Amino acid sequence: MNQPITTAEYITLQTAYDFFNQELFAGKLPQCLITLQRKKGARGYFSPDRFSGRGFEGKAHELALNPDCFVDRTDEEILSTLVHEQAHVWQQESGKPARKGYHNKEWASKMKDVGLYPSDTAQPDGKETGQKVSHYIIEGGVFSLAWAKLAKTGIKLSWESKGKAIVRTAKAESKVKYTCPNCEANAWAKPEANLLCGACSSEDGGLVDMIAA
User: Fold this and answer.
1) What is the mean pLDDT of the chain?
2) Is 113 in contact with 53 (CB distance < 8 Å)?
3) Could you give the CA distance from residue 129 to residue 132 in angstroms, rounded to a whole number?
4) Whole-model pTM?
5) Residues 147 and 193 in one domain
6) Can you give the residue range of the structural domain that contains 100?
7) Continuous segment of H or E residues that includes residue 5
8) Which residues of 102-135 are buried (b: 16+ CB within 10 A; e: fewer)?
9) Beta-strand runs (E) in 66-184
10) Do 96 and 50 fall into the same domain?
11) Statement: residue 104 has pLDDT above 70
12) pLDDT given at position 61
């Protein structure tokens, strides 16, 4: 590549932002400072008014994508995260933003309008609102159609983090309830724990496994 790689990658992201702004948001979104940031547990994030001008009056939102989450995902999937964050930009500018990091019903409705279905599991069975919400692409929806149009221009992301893909899933419960099948004593521990009932095990010399509820 003769073109500097920073220039090439950020031009690609800016081009996608501008394209989806016109196709999905009627060109009403302001320019943001797009960054690549590694944030554990997130494919991207939006942070309002994160930057201010140096020597001039101005402010800009930050729209970040996590390159760790580019691995094993298509450009369509990666750029759907860009649009996910653009929906936050839209809400900041034209709606009623919720508390920091929260995905409310207004945001969820806009996501559906632009062809992405909100889900905290990234699957059809997930919750549409909450503190951590992902999405899946609606087949034949407006995002899918817009991406098909953009893809014909030859746009392509060229870089990703080195390493294994990071898959975001719904947060597992930190503790679950276990019950002894003999005496019905209860205990709480991590989901993968193997618990023995001390009372029952001492009575007959055997080991009694407690069962997750």
Assistant:
1) 86
2) no
3) 8
4) 0.76
5) no
6) 5-151
7) helix 5-25
8) ebbebbbebbbebbbbbbbebeeebebebeebbb
9) 116-119, 134-137, 176-179
10) yes
11) yes
12) 97
